[in-house]
Design a protein that fits this description.
Organism: Arabidopsis lyrata subsp. lyrata (Lyre-leaved rock-cress)
Oligomer: single chain
Shape: elongated
Low-confidence stretches: none
Mean pLDDT: 90
Family: Belongs to the BCAP29/BCAP31 family.
Distance between the termini: 69 Å
Main location: endoplasmic reticulum
Helix content: over 70%
Largest sheet: none
Protein name: Endoplasmic reticulum transmembrane protein
Keywords: Endoplasmic reticulum, ER-Golgi transport, Membrane, Protein transport, Transmembrane, Transmembrane helix, Transport
Strand content: under 5%
Length: 137
């Protein structure tokens, strides 16, 4: 089960990285991604996204708490960790890192989408103003 969760988190991180790269460069795929993100912010989708993010945040906190417990147990035993604690600590750290990365990249995607939309609106308004200036002069 642990391996499946890591595969899922790595897949999500990869998809988010591709979305960020797509939003970062002015390719034809960017319009499609912006349209899809626009559609995903309509209806009940924002509520679902916030619920999933809150659940991941709670899981992230739980994993961090487990990591701190393992670290405290190792510190109390004189700084010597057995192999089980080392494996559990490494898995908790990897899980916490991946969840934190997923949450951070989701925020980056949201902000990049917002700024891309604002840039499109500003360019459209500027083009309209330039066209009005040419016809009025």
């Amino acid at each position: 089960m642990l391996v499946e969760m890591f595969q899922l988190l790595f897949t999500i991180v990869s998809i988010e990285a591709v979305l960020i790269l797509t939003l970062g460069f002015g390719t034809p795929a960017r319009r499609v991604v912006v349209k899809l993100l626009d559609l995903s912010k309509q209806g009940r989708a924002p509520l679902v996204a916030k619920t999933v993010a809150a659940t991941m945040l709670v899981l992230f906190g739980s994993v961090m708490f487990s990591t701190i417990q393992i670290h405290t147990r190792v510190s109390d035993s004189g700084g010597v960790a057995n192999s089980t604690d080392q494996v559990m600590f490494a898995n908790c750290l990897l899980e916490a890192f991946l969840m934190g990365t997923v949450l951070f990249l989701a925020m980056v995607i949201d902000r990049m989408h917002y700024y891309t939309r604002e840039l499109q609106i500003t360019r459209r308004n500027l083009e309209i103003a330039v066209n009005k200036g040419k016809t009025g002069a």
